[in-house]
Amino acid sequence: MKAIVIYSSLTGNTKKIAEAIYEAIPFNKDIIKLGEKDINIEEYDIVVAGYWVDKGTCDDKIKDILEKINNKEVMIFGTLGAADKGEYYDKIKERIEEILPENNKILGHFLCQGKINEKLTDRYKVMLKENPDDIHIKEQLKNHMEAKSHPDEKDIKNAKEFTENALRNIIK
């Protein structure tokens, strides 16, 4: 059995989770950041695909890969700035899973909070100066501050446990 962990990472969040998942895979494996080298997915039994959330779905780089995966066992993982609010995370997972062709078997989907790009935080700070009473902007900035420490050690541990659990049924 052979697995590949492929991921796209803008701020390093998804890379951290990719490395944790890679570490937890107990058999022959490779890890590749998209754009670093060509990938032949056909060489692998299991594809583990990592993304960062862009406007409520996965980034375009990983979307292109997901659309081309066929007849594989697939694990999906991602990071986003928002804290887990249950329903929001579930909708993101659902949107992304719908991208994957139906002839694949999804072994699991992991999503966790990651730090937010400082440029976006700076934009919100400017917006708050212009609109000091805007509760939505204040909430966004509060979330940005909370997100700064993620992915943290607990997120890394959860990613490893997710991997072990997702692979449990296929490792005999």
From TrEMBL:
Gene3D superfamilies xref list: 3.40.50.360
InterPro entries, per database record: BilS, Flavodoxin/NO_synth, Flavodoxin_CS, Flavoprotein-like_sf, Protoporphyrinogen_IX_DH
GO MF entries: electron transfer activity; FMN binding; menaquinone-dependent protoporphyrinogen oxidase activity; oxidoreductase activity, acting on NAD(P)H
GO biological process, any: heme biosynthetic process
Limits of the Flavodoxin-like domain: 5-163
Protein's name in the database: Flavodoxin
Organism, as annotated: Clostridium collagenovorans DSM 3089
